[in-house]
Design a protein that fits this description.
Length: 353
Amino acid sequence: MSGSRLMRAIRVGEFGAPSVLRLCPEVPVPQPGRGQVRRPVCGRGQSCRQMSVAVLKRLHIMLIRVYACGVNPVETYIRSGTYARKPTLPYTPGTDVAGVVETVGEGVVAVKAGDRVFTTATESGGYAEFTVAAEDSVHKLPDALDFTQGAAIGIPYFTAYRALIHKAHSKAGEAVLIHGASGGVGVAACQLSRALGLRVFGTAGTPEGMNLVVKNGAHMAFNHREEGYTDKIMKATDGRGVDVILEMLSNVNLSKDLQMLAYGGRVMVIGSRGPIEINPRDTMAKESSIMGVVLFFATPEEKKECAALLYAGMEAGWLRPVVGSKYQLDKAAQAHHDIIESPGAAGKIVLTM
Ligand code: NAP
């Protein structure tokens, strides 16, 4: 591959509103070689010139031609500069790409050039025509899934698995409420919960979203914008409550979640965008627990276990990522705006190259 090859990539040169996501047309394609990568120097603008790939000087890395990249809410928090972990500026966002392996670096054995793959992390950023990823973050993409579906697997499905299995220790026969089931994590959680033999309840904010939730494994769907929907959920469990709640908007729902739990119930805090007041006594009434979930803390062993189960789901056919909206790479700023500001999720938002 020629070292002078250029690609289009989104670069963030300062934290702020979605408009800081700039399409840079001439970023050199990173070069994984014998354990090292040539530092890209952009023909235009400092933000591209400063692209940091020092971390690429490692074994077991590869270059991937990206066809699609998932957009996750966390990428908007990081871009705005309000998130706890901040990348060094400038940077290219994006962890969940799907594409084709272009070149492999030294030590890579699990995949080869030409293989269709998806990733759970990248080293150089996924909002780009090419990205570099480490072997332990790259998985083969089955032929039955297209690239946009492949880009919808990473954070959503691995988070759903972490919450349901590693944190909530959910068991077949238990009842789970996926509170916010129409988005990326929610759809993944519906499919996974149903495959694992749980009784699945999901919420969405629109009739279309509720329909999607039922199509993807929920036994029943409820509208979280409707007055009295929590009563309907309680009625659906004959007043017993649910064993597990996967909560996507804890700052709105945590207090009422505690009322909807069965004895020994567990609320998994997956998403939260602010504070909320709760009555701790509500946890005593049912000896219930509230637990935070952060995918970032998953160990390599946990990720391996999760990948194995998800792969089995792809082979068996129950794991079918649902892509809601697709945006071209140059519309990344619009995608960031919409994922936070436009209600009525209908699956995953992805960028296409
Ligand atoms: P998404 O695709 O944007 O979906 C957001 C979901 O929240 C939609 O189903 C939406 O439903 C729902 N929602 C909106 N208002 C709600 C309400 N009042 N009550 C319950 N649900 C409501 O986002 P995502 O990728 O699924 O992520 C969901 C949350 O989890 C985000 O906050 C994200 O940052 C977080 N997350 C955390 C981790 C972690 O490691 N902890 C990992 C991934 C994601 P409607 O649009 O139909 O109203």
